[in-house]
Amino acid sequence: MEAFLTDDEFDLMVELVNIGVGKSASALSQLAGEEVLLSVPALEFLTLADATSVFEERLPALLTGVSQEFSGFFSGKAALLFPESRSLDLVNVMLGGDDFDGEIDAELEEEALSELGNILLNNCLSTLSNILNKSLATQLPHTFHAKPAGLISQLLSEEKDETIIMLLKVDFSLKSRNLSGHLVFVIDFSENGTFKKTLQDYLKSLEAA
Amino acid sequence: MTLRILLVDDSKVSRLALSKALRKIDETLDISEAASADAAEQYLETTTVDCVLIDYNMPDRNGLELAEALFLSHPAIKKTLVTANIQDTLRERALSMGVGFIAKPAKPEELAAVLGA
């Protein structure tokens, strides 16, 4: 499946995501007041059926997520996924930790997750956009609760047999809070011709420099 | 004199976080909130503020559209975008309009600079 990108394009994409996620991690670290540990980004091209198996195999049984649709030089959805049991800890992170003196109800919890997704996903997407010098439009964040098997329908507007998903997954964790999550980009590669061209143009510009 | 600030953001959590960060800088600030561009304009019909901190990505109109409208209706109010959309193109567009730009999560020193603290 990696043949959808050349080795150089593949390396470039991993590196771009590394930088973008680094920016998101810096934002999360600022909110949480502690260091955020990141895994190396894993980039895979998957069919719909394979993607569902991969999600079921690697993700917790119940997820809370925030997704954000983006469009421009590449289009799709980015999502931040957490084990559902830990979502309250994230709300605490967003509300400034233990010194939040208000009551956390379901509405505030959803709002906090939505805003956390907005900050982390936009920081990452904007960084990619800035490096490649191409604009991206992002929609409002959307929170959801899902099982891994239902994740694809949350993250794809249309499921077609020929759909190839570019799945980028980065795991991050806040050590002292024993809290970890996943950042996933799902794009339908069959409809993203300009994305490959953008990567090629950027590589050419590096060679010319 | 007490500085009057209007926070415009569709996220209640973001308004809470920003309000808290601002009060850490200056606890005497007079902070009001609006959850949309329309609500902000409605509020400003009857109340004056010194500074408006505006989110970019909002459901009805985006932050720059609101800032543009406020330049016509309230030219004296200082306008600053506070957004997680840190694309250079957006930052440049804001700055060229005379709108300040702060990346979310906002750093205390950047907020202090907006307040002139």
Can you give keywords for this protein?
heterodimer; A: 209 residues; alpha+beta; Chemotaxis protein chec; 8-stranded antiparallel sheet; 8 strands; B: 117 residues; globular; hydrolase (chain A); hydrolase activity (chain A); CheC-like_sf (chain A); CheC inhibitor of MCP methylation (chain A); CheZ_family_phosphatases (chain A)
Please explain how this structure is put together.
- The complex is a heterodimer of chains A (209) and B (117).
- Chain A is built from six helices and eight strands; from the N terminus they run αββαββααββαββα.
- Chain A is of the alpha+beta class.
- Chain A has a single domain, classed as CheC-like (Chemotaxis protein chec, 3-Layer(aba) Sandwich), CATH 3.40.1550.
- In chain A, strands 1, 2, 3, 4, 5, 6, 7 and 8 form an eight-stranded antiparallel sheet that branches.
- In chain A, strand 7 and strand 8 form a beta hairpin.
- In chain A, helix 1 crosses helix 4, helix 1 crosses helix 6 and helix 3 packs across helix 4.
- The model of chain A has no long low-confidence stretch (mean pLDDT 83).
- Chain B is α/β, with parallel strands linked by helices.
- Chain B has one domain: Rossmann fold (3-Layer(aba) Sandwich).
- Chain B has five helices and five strands, in the order βαβαβαβαβα.
- Chain B has a five-stranded parallel sheet, sandwiched between helices.
- In chain B, helix 4 links the parallel strand 4 and strand 5.
- Chain B is globular.
- The two termini of chain B are 13 Å apart.
- The relative contact order of chain B is 0.19.
- Chain A: InterPro entries: CheC-like_sf (IPR028976), CheZ_family_phosphatases (IPR050992).
- Chain A: This is CheC inhibitor of MCP methylation.
- Chain A: GO terms for molecular function: hydrolase activity.
- Chain A: Keywords: Chemotaxis, Hydrolase.
- Chain A: It comes from Marinomonas pollencensis.
- Chain B: One of its GO terms (biological process) is phosphorelay signal transduction system.
